[in-house]
Amino acid sequence: MLCIKLCKEESTDLSLRRGGVEILTGCGAAASLRHLLVSYQSSVNTACRLGALCSFCQGNQQSWDGDTGPLSCHMLKLYIFIGLMCLARSEGDKRCATFTKLSFSKAVIGTGLDVRLLLYTGRDRTCAQIVNSTAFGDLSVTKKTTFVIHGFRPTGSAPRWMEDLVQALLSVEDMNVVVVDWNRGAATVIYNQASSKTRKVAMILKEFIDELLAKGASLSNIYMIGVSLGAHISGFVGEMYAGQLGRITGLDPAGPLFNEKPPEDRLDPSDAQFVDVIHSDMDALGYKQPLGNIDFYPNGGLDQPGCPKTIFGGMQYFKCDHQRSVYLYLASLREDCAVVAYPCDSYRDYRNGKCISCGMAHTEPCPLVGYYADRWEAYLREKDLSATKAFFDTAEREPFCMYHYFVDVIPWNKNVRRGSITIKLSDKDGNTTESRIDHEPATFQKYQQVSLLARFHRDLSEVAAVSLLFSTGSVVGPRYKLRVIRMKLRPLTHPDR
């Protein structure tokens, strides 16, 4: 704001405002003096000040600031002009804080730890402020504060998903989003060096949160989203507050150097009031065992559809499965569809249709994957469940949703048939979608009902026709037919249909 203050008389007090410029005239000095103060204070604390003292009262001119030269009206205009130039310059110099970007050569050399906290709020979703334990910027302690903590950065680049995640979080709730930028520390080609800094990052975050609490924030309003190593950093912070943080979400918590570690050396369910975890790369970069109150396993927690299967896929071969957890979480913040999971003891039991009670009988709610997973917290407390594993399948690309149906088949073949089936659905407009159930051969005996879980990429609101194709999987053998007395389709994703 540009403020021009002109002291003419002690009784004068006039305020004029136009746009972002405010001109105030008043008098705080003797009636015989005229005081001119031109100042500018920008929203990023860049200040420019200019002052002059002169007398035009009763026709007498006095010197300016004790000098011998008189201050004319031309000089007055000059000072106002300089003040306006200061306004323009300060606005032009306004800078938004950005995530630290380092070159690959920096990652090869390695960097010392430097943690920067970038605050985003609904007031300015695209421009971050640097905050710390002494400067909080626009952070409101009465709102939820969500920390987003990245993991190992072997190339030194910024995470591609970070900006999308920040914007998506702010779009669903009015909150403070604090990006924990520890790229100087995480950027190294030596994984051990990055993992060794995780506790130091946690200590820095605790210092900041302590100040938030002193300002009136609540631990229940603290939410941490940790990716890879960031998940364990979140756990270390939660442990220092005796598990009183509101929530921690672990997105494929890092496995190397953390697998088989005791709870105090990794993320665990006691680190927050509610801990939810998505495992998407258990056989490589992710953690193998359950870590939360509820652990989600997309596609069994191993190879993710759409990710390269060979090294010829380049860098995506190494990181696609690991990062899929982040993109699944992102999808949950968008309105395309809700990704539903099914509590189960194993992925095999889920695929065989043994774990769909939450979708069929409404005896329990089906947990949602991602941001809204905390809706499951009340059910966990009600049933006194210490830990739950939940499985689901996804499509190859966003929004990743699959639409589940239970298929009941009663055959009447004289001889036993063993093989896989493909279910095809059609609606009255000619739209089709199909599901191949071939994870393991199904056995069909005469008059014995077989129930199978079918997963479709497309949601047809009104199914007009259902067809079934049976295959033994044999190339050279005879082509057996499967004769069906009855086939029933039961929707799980939309059970009310």
Tell me what you see in this structure.
With 497 residues, this protein is of the alpha/beta class. Helix content is 22%, strand content 29%. The protein is built from 11 helices and 21 strands. The longest helix has 20 residues, at 73-92. Keywords: Calcium, Cell membrane, Disulfide bond, Glycoprotein, Hydrolase, Lipid degradation, Lipid metabolism, Membrane, Metal-binding, Secreted, Signal.
Keywords:
Lipoxygenase-1; glycoprotein; 22% helix; lipid metabolism; 497 residues; signal; 29% strand; ten-stranded mixed beta sheet; alpha/beta; elongated; disordered N terminus
Percentage of residues assigned to helices: 10-25%
The helix-and-strand class reads: alpha/beta
Low-confidence stretches: 1-71, 87-93
The H-level CATH homologous superfamily of the largest domain, spelled out, is Alpha/Beta hydrolase fold, catalytic domain
The total number of structural domains is: 3
Q: How many helical elements? A: 11
Strand arrangement across the biggest beta sheet: 7-6-9-8-10-11-12-13-15-14
For the terminal residues, how far apart are their CA atoms? 59 Å
The CATH architecture term of the largest domain is 3-Layer(aba) Sandwich
- Work out the number of β strands: 21
Radius of gyration: 32 Å
Would you give the CATH topology of the largest domain? Rossmann fold
Average pLDDT score: 82
Largest sheet: 10 strands, mixed
What percent strand? 25-35%
Membrane topology: Peripheral membrane protein
GO molecular function: carboxylic ester hydrolase activity; heparin binding; metal ion binding; phospholipase activity
Main location: membrane
Subunit structure: Interacts with TTMP/C3orf52.
